[in-house]
Amino acid sequence: MPEKKSQEILKMISESNLEKVCIFSGACVDPDGLASQMIMAAIIKKINPTAEIFKYHRKSFSHPQNKTMRQSLGLDVKSEDDPIFGFEAQNTEESPFTCAISVDGPSSVCPVVPDFIIDHHEQSEPATTASDVRLIGSASAILYEYAIEAEVDFTTEEGAKLATALAIGVMTDTNNFGTPNSSDLDYKASAFALEHKDAKLFNEIKNYPKPSYYIDLLSLGWEKRRQSGAVLVTGVGVIPRQRSGVISDLAEKYAELDGISTAVVGAIIKDEGNIEISVRSSNNSLNVDEFVRQAFGSGGGKRGAGAAKIVLPPILKQIREEHSEQLWELARAVIIDKALQAAGDGERPTQSD
User: Fold this and answer.
1) Both 270 and 248 in a single domain?
2) Among 11, 48, 309, 332, which one is least packed by beta carbons within 10 Å?
């Protein structure tokens, strides 16, 4: 019987130099990526107990659920601001790592070209050694298969934390198996994880506390919405980086409402002067990746979810506080126009403020 892809790549990983390993995850922090990093780290430790492992993310833990997950599971995840990542991007000769692995996200955002890619997103370039890309509901479900092959122990206290992260990762990225790309492996991984999870930690993360400003922004976004057919576009103004995690939460919430299949939510992050946009869609005929790129000229996505960041020119980043709302109103108008036009509904607005 031929070996599974996971068996082949596990063998390659075990034969690699695992002295100093970095595990990269995506363009933003989310439960699926965090779970994937945790499981891969456990696999590396199983192969080489003395390996030094770094888990890397590109953005802050601004989403309340991610913060809860980090605190409850004691995650040691480093950001791109850490000095160890201060080398020239995409230059393997400058890399301080002996092995780089990309999980749950486009490898193009990695600061080095990865040796291995294990993911559920389409990739523009293969890894230098081997890639395992399956277009299923979650990346952590694929990593579950690798963990079983590597005989990672899920019966210990640390194993229960792994299972807890796996359960949250699969359920979040498949939207509780509501996404059309949910697969048998997602179901199998979730069933296993729920059986082996730490119930207390699982409930803490699943029922993460909403911040007090959540309802205010939810109401503001609803008040400022423009809707055309089943597409809703809105924004929540100028907000600090610490609150930016709710943008995706709001998009998800609006997309669940009756009569809305696609929700687009944007905001200016005042600490950085950039516009961040989140997209959620239950419309199976909408290619979210193409939609985001067409509408905003950057970013991307997968089935059901996408995001974009628009970097404002320096002259607009340096405007006085009293002019920031005027800048936002202009940005909001452009976001609405571009999003509705890309969705094919730009000529038929049904509501505006």
Assistant:
1) yes
2) 11
pTM over 0.90? The answer is: no
Give tens-digit pLDDT for 168-224: 999 988 888 877 789 999 999 999 999 999 999 999 999 888 778 888 999 999 999
Considering the domain architecture, whether residues 120 and 162 belong to the same structural domain is answered as yes
Residues 6 or more apart whose CB falls under 8 angstroms from that of 262 comprise: 230, 231, 232, 255, 279, 280, 281, 282, 283, 286, 343
H helices of 74-196, in order, are 139-149, 157-173, 184-196
Structural domains in the chain (count): 2
Of 206, 235, 255, the position where a domain reaches its end is 206
For residue 349, tell me if it sits in a domain: no
* One-character DSSP codes across 206-270: HTPPPPTHHHHHHHHHHHT-EEETTEEEEEEEEE-GGGTTHHHHHHHHHHTSTT-SEEEEEEEET
| 189 DSSP assignment | H
How many whole angstroms from its chain centre is CA 64?
14
pLDDT in tens, 173-187: 888 887 778 999 999
> The domain containing residue 70 runs over which residues?
5-206
